[in-house]
């Protein structure tokens, strides 16, 4: 009896916090995406030049 009672307790608890974090998570995700985008382009920039450099190195070498 305790198991079934405990199960329904956590179930309703999850759906309740879900809506709260979901609404807040949406704006947070957007903010995170923006922050990630700013950081991502900064990192990929140096990474991108590195890729062409590696590709170019083997080409001239060959």
UniProtKB/TrEMBL annotation:
Extent of Pro residues compositional bias: 7-20
Biased composition range(s): Low complexity: 50-62
Residues covered by region (Disordered): 1-62
Name listed for the protein in its UniProt record: WNK lysine deficient protein kinase 4
Provenance organism: Homo sapiens
Lineage summary: Eukaryota, Metazoa, Chordata, Craniata, Vertebrata
């Amino acid at each position: 009896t305790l198991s079934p009672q405990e199960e329904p307790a956590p179930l309703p608890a999850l759906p309740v916090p879900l809506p709260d974090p979901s609404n807040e998570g949406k704006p947070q995700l957007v903010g995170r995406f923006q922050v990630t985008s700013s950081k991502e382009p900064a990192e990929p920039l140096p990474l991108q030049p590195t890729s062409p450099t590696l590709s170019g190195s083997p080409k001239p070498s060959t």
